[in-house]
Amino acid sequence: MKRVYTFGDGKAEGNAEMRNLLGGKGANLAEMNLLGMPVPPGFTITTEVCNQYTQDGRDAVVRLIQKDVEAAIAHVESLTGKKFDDPANPLLVSVRSGARASMPGMMDTVLNLGMNDATVASLAEKSGNPRFAWDSYRRFVQMYGDVVLGMKPKSKADIDPFEEIMEKVKEQKGVKLDTELDVDDLKNLVKLFKVAVKDFTGKDFPDSAWEQLWGGICAVFDSWMNERAILYRRMNQIPEEWGTAVNVQAMVYGNMGNNSATGVAFSRDAATGENMFNGEYLINAQGEDVVAGIRTPQQITVEGSRRWAALQGISEDDRKNKYPSLEESMPDCAAELIAIANRLEDYYKDMQDMEFTIQDGKLWMLQTRNGKRTGAAMVKIAMDLLRAGQIDEKTTLMRMEPQKLDELLHPVFDKAALKRAKVVAKGLPASPGAAAGQVVFSAEDAEAWAEKKKKVVLVRIETSPEDLRGMAVAQGILTMRGGMTSHAAVVARGMGKCCVSGAGEIKVDYKAKTVEMGGKVYNEGDWISLNGSTGEVYDGQVPTTEPELGGDFGAIMNLAAKYTKTLVRTNADTPRDAKQARNFGAQGIGLCRTEHMFFEGDRIKAVREMILSNDVDGRRNALKKLLPMQRGDFEGIFEAMDGYGVTIRLLDPPLHEFVPHQTATQKELAQEMGLTLEEVKAKVDSLEEFNPMLGHRGCRLGITYPEITEMQTRAIIEAALNMKARGIDVHPEIMIPLVGTLKEIQNQADVINITAAKVFEERGESVPYKVGTMIEVPRAALTADQIATVADFFSFGTNDLTQMTFGYSRDDAPKFLKFYKEHGIIKTDPFEVLDQEGVGQLVRMGVEKGRATKPELKVGICGEHGGEPSSVKFCAKLGMNYVSCSPYRVPIARVAAAQAAIEG
Ligand code: PEP
Ligand code: MG
């Protein structure tokens, strides 16, 4: 088994294909050598050695690879003409981590390894720059002490012991900046640093370069298991078994004088995707100086430099003198760098993000990788590469991170303004987009303010269906409680409206009309801004810009349509949402939640009258008033979905959600219905349940009050007949919620079929329709074979299925799920990402048992997971006919479904 891979001078033992073994950085360093690019020579210790290290410990691993590492160092010595641990002509190296997936800043790095009192002198002499040599030495002792010897403070609140010493020395000298320290000061610092090391470790600082090297290598392996890295892996689902490689490389210096520099470059624009090489550099600097932001980096190209200067209001003369581009200051290096960037992009066929250093006029490449990019850049770069014949259609689709398409569909914050904005609270990123508005605390106020053409953000402790109208007119919604599938989140996503939910630390006071966030009290009318994609809440009004759906986006959607095997439907409750979703490419409605229509206009009155009635006749009377309104909505939806299936679900939520809870509104209702306030109150109280989500809801309502099912069925069938008469191609599908037993579905299917037959007879014509059920109670999945004897279709309601499988309340879970996530009890919120291991078993069982009874059974999913890429892929691979999601997630689901088909 080969454990150490060398590279240098146009040769390498590894290559770009060996990413798993050599890590991303190691594989690409090898490849750049093979491509003949200037890379400081070095070697990579494999990720497998890291696993062995974790398992067998330091001594065993050092013994195992000692000979290989010695040989590899000899290889670097022969290429550089220098010698490791040699006072006269020392080879200095860097030791860096490099995992399979990039984990920025998570693991450790040691630079300048090989320095000691003897080698520093020869570095000073060779570079002709003693200050540079002693500064490197000072940095090395500090870095080694922090990283290898464990002197870095564990908490951010504690100060680094070396920084403390440095502050003291500067204070004594009366200077502020590190750069004001001279050679003698730096020599003194090295001495003091070493004393600190001895105090801490009880041993002298290691002078031997070999001892330093082993310390550095083992520190990188150790850092794979540090807390930061473990947390990052958990958050990004990177398996521990991947391990990290270690890259040891000859040092090159960008801080050797004014003929040296260091920088980063991108082969295309990572923000817009524009095919424009760009990047930044600093003369006489090390990598960390670029990141630290103390000095202003300069642009690499003249064009980029001019653009930058224009934005900063800097004159062309000033720009040339003070901030020249690399093309102007070091034209040969710039030309070489651009040629390399082009070749790398040609080779990897993707946008590259590169690090380089120029030492004394010679360019060295330190790293290349596929660059991170925005959603817009992702789409544009992939389509440009496809058109240039660099990649094929399937690769283009596989290049999409579906979730990122979302950035293209919503308003976004102005980038510059966002940098200055102050975050005052953080909640769940419940529905993406950007919103700025004045704070209001009730749906009524939201409507009143919106009527006066004001932009509002609706702030609620939690939302209920009563808030729907307020939500519709608000720019965004902020709630204190509620998770990713809370009412506010689901409804907001459906509307494509920005929403931050479950911001537990804010304090909402409805009476005082205030919300306290980030130590400030906001009154009604104060401006705040929400980022529904990150969950951040900002003080004041951060300007937003509208999205533009360019041609490339459409082209990606066409490609998705070409390769997908799974249809994407939408969850939409109104004709408006249905139209929007169809524009995004939805092929039918997978879930129409009829109760959402109950809050529009005056309908809620009729709904309340129905609920408060004491007998069937009273209920029937009230339902009669609702019938034409529901029928009208259904007509609009059938029209919007001409030619496609429309699944309409019968009433689902517990009735107490529809009745008024405030005395004033109760009084009004009592008057209208000719009842006393006490009677209304008593009825409202009687609807109160300990556990409404497990209470009198779903088909349990339709079974106890069949007249509701009758009215809704009639509305659906009549609407279908009316639209059919107008030449619309209708495909109604009636869905029964919360079924757990065969008897339940039989009962409701009978009511539906009898009602439909009656309507057909009255009208003297008919239309084909389907009757199916949600699978959202675990028992339904377990007995799917029986339920399929009655159902024409199944639609997995994974919101409730997750709730009931885990026993986590959809609305209360955020309180502890956040803690669970941070402490590694769960990897992801199961209400967001389908739990394939547990809930997924029930889904699989439901599909298999259902189709065992009825092979042609139509199966889909309509829980929120229907728009989450990994869940969409899971469903597609189970052979579901469709997934259904809120309109703004349709493009995401379409691409994820196409990817599932390509992956096979
Ligand atoms: C579900 O439970 O997954 C579902 C789609 O229904 P609702 O969210 O309306 O309960
Ligand atoms: Mg449900």
UniProtKB/TrEMBL annotation:
Task: Please verify whether the record's keywords include Transit peptide.
Answer: no
Q: Which cofactor does it need?
A: Mg(2+)
Task: Identify the InterPro entries for this entry.
Answer: ATP_grasp_subdomain_1, PEP-util_enz_mobile_dom, PEP_util_AS, PEP_util_C, PEP_util_CS, Phosphohistidine_dom_sf, PPDK_AMP/ATP-bd, Pyruvate_phosphate_dikinase
Lineage: superkingdom:
Bacteria
UniProt domain PEP-utilising enzyme C-terminal: residue ranges: 552-900
Q: What is its EC number?
A: 2.7.9.1
Please list the residue ranges annotated as the PEP-utilising enzyme mobile domain: 454-535
Query: Active-site positions, per UniProt?
Result: 487, 862
Where, in this chain's numbering, is Mg(2+) bound?
A: 776, 800
Keywords of the record, alphabetical order, are: ATP-binding, Kinase, Magnesium, Metal-binding, Nucleotide-binding, Pyruvate, Transferase
Q: Where does substrate bind?
A: 593, 649, 776, 797-800
Substrates-to-products reaction catalysed: pyruvate + phosphate + ATP = phosphoenolpyruvate + AMP + diphosphate + H(+)
Keyword set includes ATP-binding:
yes
Q: Which GO terms describe its molecular function?
A: ATP binding; kinase activity; metal ion binding; pyruvate, phosphate dikinase activity
The first-level EC class reads transferase
Query: Which Pfam families does this chain map to?
Result: PEP-utilizers, PEP-utilizers_C, PPDK_N
Q: Boundaries of each Pyruvate phosphate dikinase AMP/ATP-binding domain copy?
A: 20-386
The record's section on PANTHER family has: PHOSPHOENOLPYRUVATE DIKINASE-RELATED, PYRUVATE, PHOSPHATE DIKINASE 1, CHLOROPLASTIC
**UniProt record similarity statement:** Belongs to the PEP-utilizing enzyme family.
What does the UniProt function comment say about this protein?
Answer: Catalyzes the reversible phosphorylation of pyruvate and phosphate.
Q: What name does the UniProt record give this protein?
A: Pyruvate, phosphate dikinase
